[in-house]
Amino acid sequence: MVAADPDAALIGLDEPVLIDEWQVVPEVLGAVKRAVDDDPRPGRFLLTGSVRAELSASGWPATGRVVRVALWGLCQRELARAAEGPSPLGLLFEGGVETLSSTSNLVLRDYVDLALRGSFPEVALQAQESLRRRWLGSYLEQVVQRDAALAGVAADPHRLRSYLRALASNSAGVVEHKTLYDGAGINRLTAQAYDGLLEALFVTEQIPAWTTNRLARVTRTSKRYLVDPALLGPLAGMSSRSVLRDVDQLGRLIDTFVVSQLRAELSAVEPEITMYHLRQEHGRHEVDVVLEASDGRVVGCEIKVTAAPVPEMARHLIWLRDQLGDDFVVGVLLHTGPRAFRLDERIYAVPISFLWRP
Q: What is the pTM of this model?
């Protein structure tokens, strides 16, 4: 019916109208455009579909008529059926962390298991580990074999896979681009094309460095992440058992997992909040995540694999607080232990599970 007459198909439907997998009949976008031109009330249509369709689409008639919202995977707040509660980011920017007295019953192994399940619904909701591994392997094969060609990127599947593995091994790290593409056996231009493809497919993301004229000698190199921590399993050879025996792997996995939870919250909060990282030259001071609101207020986050945080672990947050003054709302040291408590003025140790059970 939609293919035969997309304009007629939209008439008389209860609003808001959800059009899922719009790319099956791309002409429906033109019908939505005409419907919105005739009646510009906002919120009449929700359009969802595959990002792969946009990579191959010849045109996009909805320019100026839609607001794009990235649909990330399932975060733990959704999986825990807690998405109707208060946003953890809202609590941080409102100073609500001061009232926390809750405890967490999760231990390090629990966080590792949650991270390796990731946010793909087919994986996060799948109880059988062997099926999760096979699904993730199949997904990666599609990325390197089919999606590159779809996007017009002349990719050698073997080299694209090697580049993905290099990115996975450095997820949550500040690494020189040359180190990555040399390790994958490709040149800079090819790596840039791969970066564009993988970011368009929401496989990887670069978190920009936060800069301000109040801080000297701050690096401008972005921090690279795999969007879904579950992909670290097949790409970097991580399993629950191996990660718990490798400090470097463990830190990267937990950092990637925490950032995936924060990323999912950003598109749902008001006012707009942007995520950065902060690193001075030679690593003198380094803050894993800097969240900046549109009004200039800042929340700093450190991610530590420890069940017993101490004030010394928050020294970079304390430094950032002292540099920013009143613009610094709060600093949180997100850890794998059971309790939330105060470390210093406006600096708190908080279990990672605060991000879905505030």
A: 0.91
